[in-house]
């Protein structure tokens, strides 16, 4: 099982430079064996009209929004306090067909803007402009909404079939930064996983760098046909990522597990493992729990204890069918302190800790 992991290499510098020129930001491609290279054929770019009234775009069949705020809902406005909110969202086959629906993309962009970092599953498109165009919509919503500065990292296309997917991280650059050398796709030579997870290390911004919360996120989606086997494999993935050379003990495993918090197989049996989403449904039809953010509770004392499911139907006043056009999953989220804390929950200073050693 130890052979399940190996660090990927970053994509070609020229590809990154091209992406920056196109306004796509980092768009770091974490690659492993058999990585997909950008197509030599120029894809057509999808353009979105930012509506003057975000809650009622002219071409949308949806009604105006009344954003709620209770114990399991994040505030409607972007967070600005000493905490960050990390979300996971299976957007259900985000490809060219869904991207052509402006009202869907507007809602997706608005959902992203409610969090500081969003791990997204099921990007399914060979159009290399799709994600940069979507990030542009997140950052430039129009109307009275302030501009944001989200950036992203995206993994290689993974999966055994022709219907491959990419994992994506979107993050607010004023609140969070990515370690560009830390991004990689899990290498799976024994074919234990249908879609190899994307891994990246982040840290909070706006605080003393020596006290900033640094954490690694593993973005995954299990195969619903082989759930238990893949959950067992994810237990080994989690162990190896925590034992990696970076020595980062704050590892958050997020995504679509196709299983609830009580049936996580070997992953759920690991000492200290804690699912932040428990006892609630996470799918749009409101009858299954698939999605979660899982951490090692003794290590990640930065977790504030606040987490939940973002109810897309309730927050946007949608019918079930309208919400299903966005996704058959709801986003799940958890809240963390922006400050690195030790095992006793005290703010830790990495520079002083290093001096003591």
TrEMBL record:
Regions of compositional bias (Polar residues) in chain numbering: 48-79
Where is region (Disordered) located? 32-79
UniProt lists compositionally biased (Low complexity) regions at 37-47
What InterPro entries is this protein classified in?
DNase_I, Endo/exonu/phosph_ase_sf, Endo/exonuclease/phosphatase
Q: Which GO terms describe its biological process?
A: DNA catabolic process
Cleaved signal peptide residues: none
> Which keywords fit this entry according to its UniProt record?
Endonuclease, Exonuclease, Hydrolase, Nuclease
Keyword flag Hydrolase: yes
Q: Name one GO molecular function term.
A: DNA nuclease activity
Where the record annotates domain Endonuclease/exonuclease/phosphatase, the positions are: 87-257
Q: Which SUPFAM superfamilies match?
A: DNase I-like
Lineage, top-rank taxon, reads Bacteria
* Family from the record: Belongs to the DNase I family.
Which PANTHER family does the record match to this protein?
Answer: DEOXYRIBONUCLEASE, EXTRACELLULAR NUCLEASE
According to UniProt, the name of this protein is Endonuclease/Exonuclease/phosphatase family protein
